[in-house]
Every structure is written in C-alpha cells, then in structure tokens.
Amino acid sequence: MLKRLGQGVLFILVIILTSALQQHQRSPDLIIDEALERLPLPADPNASPGLLRSGSLQLMANGITLNQLDIDKILNKRREKPSIYLFGQADLGAYIMIAPGVDRRYHLVNSYFDGYMPFRVENPVLALYTVAHRKKYQLDHITYPGRPEVWQSSQQAFFAKVGDCEDHAILVADWLIGLGYDARVVVGDYDGEGHAWVVLFAEGQEFLLETTRKRGLNRLKAFPLARLQTKYHPTFMFNNTDFWQNQGSRFTTDYASSDWVKRSHYVADR
Hints:
Distance between the termini: 68 Å
Organism: Amphritea atlantica
Largest sheet: 8 strands, antiparallel
Oligomer: single chain
GO cellular component, one term: cytoskeleton
Structural class: alpha+beta
Mean pLDDT: 84
Pfam family, one: CEPT76_peptidase
Protein name: Transglutaminase-like superfamily protein
Keywords: Cytoplasm, Cytoskeleton
C-alpha cells in the first residue's frame, strides 16, 4: 500500500514538473499574444499629439535652456523646414536634434520617449521579439506621402503597424528603460547608409540591438556585443534624459568610452 502510494505521489510530482517545464518553455508568440489580449488600446494614438512629452533642454556647457516654444520660434523663421534639424554652436558642437512628429511639429528627440512599456517581460529579448513581429519596416515617405521624415513616440510606434528605423529603436529602447535597463538610441550610418539602432548597457558590456531585424531572433540567444559590430558607425546617442555626441572616430564601437560627450540634459514637464 505504501509502495503504491509512493508511486502515486511520484506520478503527481512528475505531472507538476512537466506542466511547469511546459509553462516555462511556452513559445514567445503565445506569451506575446496573451499579453496583447490584456492590453488596453488607445482610441487613435497616431492622431494624438498629447502622447509626446514636453520639457526643457539644458546645455551642459553653459546651462542655457531650450524648450518647445523656443524651437517653434526658431523654425517659424525658416521658409524651408528640414527633415531633421541639428542644433549646435561652433564652440559647443552639436547639442541636440529635433525631428518632426506625427503631429507635424518638431520636437526634441528626447521627448519621443514617452515612458510607454506595453507589458512587463522577464526576458528583454521578448521586447525586441515583439516589435520585430508586430511592426513592419516601411520608409516614412511611403507611410506619410509628401513627408520625408516623421518620428513616432514609443506609444505611437507600438500601435502603428509600420515605421522606419528610429521608430523601431525608440520603442525598444523606451521599453527596456521601463524594465530598468540603460538603453539608448544611436543614430549614424550602417555600412554608409543613415540608420538608427539601440545600444544596451548591461553587465559591464554594451550590446547592439538591430531593432529592424525581423528574422533569426531567439529568446535564448544572447544579444550581440557592440564592439564586434563594425559596420555600425555612430554619430549621436540619446535616451529619455540625455544627448551625447561622438567626438572620436566614426568607426568607434565603444559606446562607454570618453569619446562620447554628454551635450545636453532633458527634463520633462510631466
């Protein structure tokens, strides 16, 4: 009787362990689908300029501030609006970029981080995986006819079906920041063509995340080390609070080196 009872307990234990293992090994698609089912949908995120944060930019070199009103005044004096505008001074270098949003206004690039985290994941690879399978890569002039450059905030990027490289990068970086990671968007070029990607600082290393990659992602595979990605040539780097300029070689692969100079600090109003 005790022997049969022991066998029964063992059988129940095997079932529990098997069930737990299956739960742990659930496919990323199933995990994402379940999370999306519980996700509240905004009415129309692409038409809502309120998703963008407002704030002030402080220049690290002299303490001068720049806000959205200052940007509007500067651009109103220009007959032709640039796709992306770089603010700088000869003695200070470049200290911030502004870019046009869905709302047709130009915003400081830091403001496109609106703090949106779709849902919490234990493995950061799942954030990258979700974006890769949820969002299609498409150039802005196709998505927004007559507009060569349009940036989406992280929330806009999550709910918009298409977007280009910076839209993917801002969404992934902001998601990782929400999970407690140090993640930044880098702009420069990939093998000679303008591009944006994400650098993740973790465990004393820098990892490069190609957020427009749609195939070959595996949640059990480690992120690639940034120092080995020599075709990526960084110029600027930013997150939700700061903006850095690369003053070293365009071929640098060390995103934590002294070549990176912090040019400005962004403080959101909310």
